[in-house]
Amino acid sequence: KDATGNPQTRHWQALGHAHHLPPFSDYRQLKEHGPRIITRASGVYLWDSEGNCILDGMAGLWCVNVGYGREELVEAASRQMRELPYYNLFFQTAHPPAVELARAIAELAPPGMHHVFFTGSGSEANDTVLRLVRHYWAIKGQPRKNVVIGRWNGYHGSTVAGASLGGMKAMHGQGDLPIPGIEHIDQPYWFGEGGGLDPEAFGIRVADQLERKILEIGEERVAAFIAEPIQGAGGVIIPPDSYWPRIREILRKYDILFAADEVVCGFGRTGEWFGSQYYGLEPDLMAIAKGLTSGYLPMGGVVVRDRIVEVLEEGGEFYHGFTYSGHPVAAALALENIRLLREEGIVERVRTRTGPYLQRRWRELAEHPLVGEVRGLGMLAALELVKDKKTRERFPADLAAGMRCREHCFANGLVMRAVGDTMIVAPPLVISEAEIDELIAKARHCLDLTA
Ligand code: PLP
């Protein structure tokens, strides 16, 4: 990680140290080592400033769905930049890329979801969810129905509302979060919190917490439940099969809106366009971002169910929006990105070929002495590092096994993310079978080095 051969590396690290405060970074460590400098990328590979080639097992931050270096996206953005580089959508205004993109998303979304509110990021999308659901119930004459329930260890972004809706305790610890009006229930994390139950019984038990929480708060106070179909940043938590049907039952029983955070699952990661479609969910709102533009430009949004739009229309002006809502260049690029995903059959390939292939090969890692569980779906996969395979005893925290594994991966040409001792991959959706073989071989080698 330290600068070695290339003098430019030292130059950029010094600039970073002197001037840059990067997101989600340990500033003490940075002071000692300086950042890793990534300079270019192509397909599923990154290059750092030392010339090392690294297989990007995380598609950036779960976002570069079509892979790096797609000229079509560059062309679409530059065409739009020449035509209309910017105009706002405030005060009853629109431009062609925004409305064309809204239609393209509506065509892919679950039935009955035909409108999109655009934002600049996934966090802004979830802020918008919070404001939209409260606005909705206020228009319906129930302004006190304003509490939103999220899940511990869920991730919904880094703004004040996003971090509050999320259940990351370390984030809550910095800055007096969550804000009032947001409550949390447990996550369906069987490996970590199953407590001896079989997975399906555990799924029901954690889903039933939602009902208990609703009754505790009062059903007339609960506006919405927000959740990722599969928790990403929390550790690729795949819920037991019993979980979502029970949650759906409870939401219907108490007339509570459901907001699916599709920022990670959306645009093909599970092999369906949205994770909600994989699980047969019928969300009222869906937060989207990341794969919408394959990360080439920042953009997010909220896809909204028709019956909610009908109520919003009665409410007059919605005092909410962003300078960059529906940015024309990002929208034109997103449209081209969706065209590539569709016309090249990328989502279909994840569903039928490369997703099952990754999952089959990933499960071979279950044999490794350090691995307590493997799980995954489509282009999402995780494994749990354990000290004792039989008893599933964890490594002591001060050993930082996950961090060590991640560092071995970087040094050996693979990006794998560590959430504590859970190791994660979510590669670009275009990854080939040969590249999956390379990913698995490198992952296995790095597990050996971590042992
Ligand atoms: N929601 C989920 C599920 C995410 O994983 C993320 C980012 O990782 C966000 C929301 C926040 O998106 P952004 O970083 O674009 O604000």
TrEMBL record:
PROSITE patterns (UniProt xref): AA_TRANSFER_CLASS_3 (PS00600)
Cofactors (names): pyridoxal 5'-phosphate
GO MF annotations, alphabetized: pyridoxal phosphate binding; transaminase activity
Keyword annotations from UniProtKB, A to Z: Aminotransferase, Pyridoxal phosphate, Transferase
Stored Gene3D superfamilies: Aspartate Aminotransferase, domain 1, Type I PLP-dependent aspartate aminotransferase-like (Major domain)
Domain of life: Bacteria
Family to which the UniProt record says this protein belongs: Belongs to the class-III pyridoxal-phosphate-dependent aminotransferase family.
Protein name as it appears in the record: Putrescine aminotransferase
Gene encoding the protein: spuC
